[in-house]
Amino acid sequence: MSGKISGLIARIRNILPSVTWHHCCIHREAIISKKIPTQLKEVLDEADMDSEHYQLLLHSEIRWLSRGKVLSRLFKLRHEVRLFFIEHKSSITLSERLNDFSWLASLAYLSDIFAHLNVLNLSLQGSHVTIFKVEDKIEAMIKKLELWNLRLSKKNYDSFQNFNNFLELTKEELSGEVSKYIKQHIEDLQRSFRDYFLLTSPEEDNLIEISTNGSLKLQFNQKSLENFWLHVQKDYPVLSSKALKVLIPFPTTYLCEKAFSALVYVKNKFRNRLENVESELRLKLSNIEPNIEKLMSEMQYHPSH
């Protein structure tokens, strides 16, 4: 649908060849998070997709990162859940897993790593997120992964709260196999972030005049990036044009998702006969607050009879 050969992108480029586009950064992160070593994937599936209790641990496949909260809750309630399964003589497999040290250690790690990925996901959302902010967040995540990998080599698990607390509580030694595939997962994440987010290097344009202009430096700190480059477009047309080509495309589909959510809220089951919802949707999505007093002053009152 959005392909470069015959999809939306190709159709737009037929009209405007210079147009640029971005693959949604939030979607890219979700794709990366799905790449898990087989051993961890088995733990994830057993914890999250148990057929007998599917409704209890149900999650949306689209909202993959929501698994982090499910895993965290399951880990914290592991004793209660195990007792429940034993008392009701159901889900023998999962009840046994909830008493297995290696399985629980893997579960604790998964709950922590998905929590970290959730934090990153939330930081990429928002109406004022630019591609530069995305790159900064991704670069920071890659450096964190490098640090976590180094700490794991030294058996330092402070970066993973549930995992670290579990090991301290049980006083058991983590097996080499579990350590191996946890370390493998961290390395895979690091490599995938590099592959899916090809971080761009700043263009080596001549910015001396702008960087030495005190007035422009002040405006740069006060304005958003888009507004700043629009402001200097007249004086620096070439540089401004290059900057805006990078800044204008949305780095994520956040605004689209926000609009869809607003539409579902506006046109709900009680108002399903609404046909033209453009005005309501505009009010819902706009950041401009209406001046109610002014609107009322311009309307004629209808006194009661």
UniProtKB/TrEMBL annotation:
Which Gene Ontology molecular-function terms are recorded?
protein dimerization activity
Name the domain of life.
Eukaryota
Domain HAT C-terminal dimerisation intervals: 224-276
Q: Which PANTHER family match?
A: EPM2A-INTERACTING PROTEIN 1 (PTHR45913), LOW QUALITY PROTEIN: ZINC FINGER BED DOMAIN-CONTAINING PROTEIN 5-LIKE (PTHR45913:SF19)
Query: What is this protein's record name?
Result: Zinc finger BED domain-containing protein 5-like
Organism placement in taxonomy: Eukaryota, Metazoa, Ecdysozoa, Arthropoda, Hexapoda
